[in-house]
Design goal:
Elements (H helix, E strand, L loop, with lengths): L2 H8 L13 H26 L3 H5 L7 H14 L3 E8 L2 E8 L3 H6 L2 E2 H5 L7 E5 L12 H6 L2 E10 L2 E9 L8 H23 L10 H13 L3 E8 L1 H7 L7 H14 L6 E5 L4 E8 L5 H12 L11 E8 L2 H9 L3
Antiparallel strand pairs: 1-2, 1-6, 2-3, 4-5, 5-6, 7-9, 7-10, 8-9
Helix pairs in contact: 2-8, 4-8
Length: 337
């Protein structure tokens, strides 16, 4: 089962509909006015609470869901139906935000610097339709590519020699997108993009599991030391449910990746962390005696509690028993259920 279907089936209200584009300029003005109020309130709060510039520039002092909420609102308020936003990561461009497209388009949109340097050389809007769309079909799922009638692209400069790329897809024969209106709002998006690029550089997003061969070696090594493997599963369902109305479908993967990074980055040498396609984290702690479960739960929730704007974000943590059998531990880590 794909990530998109898993999220739809388990976490989200599938009745949500995308608003059709209408009154774009009026919405843009209203949106900018709302953003201005938020920025003013934030500034006053920093003054009252004595927040320093150093604190505000710390990526982990921000709320991880805020950029995703902003981007979803950005798309809905402007009336965009399908959007992908790429940021640089390890010499490639990868999707950090997406809205309205299939989850496969997020994966297919991974692209090289050379591709974009040869396609959109300047920081201005480019619009493609008809046969000119052919080079871009590779960036999207077969369904999104088949429906594509117009593609609008803008390279956004975030810092010197650092760019994000905004892709806006249209399925209409005649373009309905008001690029001038979008241009007005883009500056509000740039600060969030700078934040996401900073986190991406810390390898917070696009996480990958450790090589299975390395995990197996670790299991064999710990059992050879006469340690017991204590098994835990960690679910984000409660957090996903709180965010389901605020963020786009595919954003859950990046939020999951962020949480996985937080809870696993300070792991001890006697631990193994692994995540599944169903967005479940599995943790094995090797020790001579069982640890205090309530303390373990409190420690993990304390790690993430200040990272979200939602109230009381909590992980759902379950103890799954213990084992001294290597294969049983490996089955726990890698099984699909």
């Amino acid at each position: 089962m794909g990530l998109y279907q898993i999220i739809c089936d388990n976490y989200l209200d599938s009745s949500k509909k995308v608003e059709q584009p209408m009154g774009l300029l009026a919405k843009a003005k209203m949106y900018l006015a709302n953003e201005s109020k938020v920025e003013e309130s934030t500034t006053q709060n920093e003054i009252v609470n004595g927040n320093t510039e150093e604190e505000s520039s710390n990526p982990y002092a921000k709320k991880i869901d805020d950029p995703f909420v902003f981007f979803k609102n950005f798309c809905e308020e402007i009336g965009l139906q399908k959007t992908v936003l790429l940021i640089p990561h390890e010499n490639q461009y990868k999707a950090i935000f997406s809205y309205g497209v299939e989850s496969a388009s997020r994966d297919e949109s991974v692209s090289t610097f050379d591709f974009w340097d040869g396609t959109i050389s300047e920081n201005k809007w480019y619009s493609f339709f008809g046969e000119d769309l052919c080079p871009f079909y590779q960036l999207f799922s077969s369904d999104d590519a088949q429906l594509l009638k117009y593609l609008h692209i803008k390279k956004i400069e975030i810092a010197e020699n650092t760019f994000a790329i905004l892709l806006i897809l249209e399925n209409y024969a005649n373009s309905l997108i008001d690029l001038e209106t979008i241009e007005i709002i883009l500056p509000n998006l740039k600060s969030y993009l700078a934040y996401m690029i900073d986190l991406s550089n810390e390898n917070v997003f696009f996480k990958e599991n450790q090589e299975i061969s390395c995990i197996k070696d670790k299991v064999y090594s710990e059992i050879a030391k006469f340690n017991t493997g204590f098994l835990y599963t960690i679910s984000l369902q409660s957090i996903f449910r709180q965010l389901q109305d605020s963020v786009s479908f595919d954003d859950f993967f990046h939020i999951f990746s962020f949480i996985f990074h937080l809870v696993s980055s300070n792991q001890d040498e006697n631990e193994i962390w692994y995540f599944t396609e169903e967005l479940e984290i599995r943790n094995v702690i090797f020790a001579q005696t069982e640890m205090d479960l309530s303390k373990y739960i409190d420690n993990l929730n304390n790690i993430i509690k200040d990272s979200f704007s939602i109230e009381n974000p909590e992980l759902e943590i379950m103890y799954k028993g213990n084992s001294i059998d290597e294969q049983e531990i490996l089955d726990f880590l890698f099984s699909e259920n």
